[in-house]
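Q: Please design a sequence for this.
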């Protein structure tokens, strides 16, 4: 119970911090709307107006992934700049347990991206929000966000070690959402991307959400997403411990 309370209070704290950042608010408001607009026009230009709901859902997933990716890196950088990263690493708890609330908080704030893209598509483009499995959709989206948060923990271990975490985030944003099939089906990509997509929790989380929207087996994909996410949590836990020790040896934990 103490561990759960620590995670819950830590996530709440970082959500409050993100809600008071003008930069975070501006990005959260603008990026999902822009991505939703581009996705709708892309599908219309491709002669697939019947798949506009899929475009809106895919754009929402892209927004959630961008929020988790940049939020995890940005949160670590913010802690570094504020001089609190060392205290987090020196807390009498495992480092991963102290970083996990940050990555979960970015996932929670990312839910706005999904809501914004769906509302934007409905109000501006008249997209009918006819989900094949509405209840499954309400379960699949939080499950996908939890999976992304655990995947963010694995990525955050490298963000602790690197001084410029945004450089890594910039290189990972588009390749991951493209390979994961958030907007474009994985089957439309080159064959060599299949094995890469199969080991990413983002792939299975996106598939579960799309299946819930379009109609299909939601629970197998969601189960695989959560299973891979737990593996990411275990790997991130070990990696965070190693990175903490490595950062101390290399003197890269702080700015000075």
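A: Design:
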């Amino acid at each position: 119970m103490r561990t759960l309370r620590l995670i819950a209070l830590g996530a709440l704290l970082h959500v409050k911090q993100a809600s008071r950042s003008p930069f975070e608010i501006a990005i959260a408001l603008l990026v999902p709307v822009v991505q939703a607009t581009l996705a709708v026009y892309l599908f219309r230009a491709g002669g697939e107006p019947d798949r506009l709901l899929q475009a809106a859902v895919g754009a929402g997933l892209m927004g959630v992934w961008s929020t988790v990716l940049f939020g995890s890196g940005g949160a670590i950088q913010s802690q570094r700049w504020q001089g609190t990263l060392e205290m987090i690493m020196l807390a009498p708890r495992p480092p991963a347990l102290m970083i996990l609330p940050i990555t979960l908080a970015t996932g929670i704030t990312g839910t706005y991206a999904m809501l914004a893209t769906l509302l934007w598509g409905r109000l501006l483009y008249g997209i009918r929000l006819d989900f094949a499995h509405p209840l499954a959709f309400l379960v699949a989206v939080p499950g996908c966000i939890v999976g992304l948060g655990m995947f963010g923990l694995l990525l955050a271990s490298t963000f602790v070690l690197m001084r410029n975490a945004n450089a890594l985030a910039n290189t990972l944003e588009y390749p991951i959402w493209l390979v994961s099939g958030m907007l474009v089906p994985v089957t439309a990509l080159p064959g060599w991307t299949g094995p890469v997509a199969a080991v990413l929790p983002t792939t299975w989380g996106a598939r579960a959400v799309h299946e819930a929207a379009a109609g299909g087996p939601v629970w197998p994909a969601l189960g695989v997403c959560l299973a891979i996410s737990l593996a990411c949590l275990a790997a991130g836990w070990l990696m965070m411990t190693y990175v903490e020790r490595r950062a101390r040896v290399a003197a890269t934990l702080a700015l000075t």
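Q: Thanks. Anything notable?
A: The chain has a mean pLDDT of 80. The first helix runs from residue 2 to 19.
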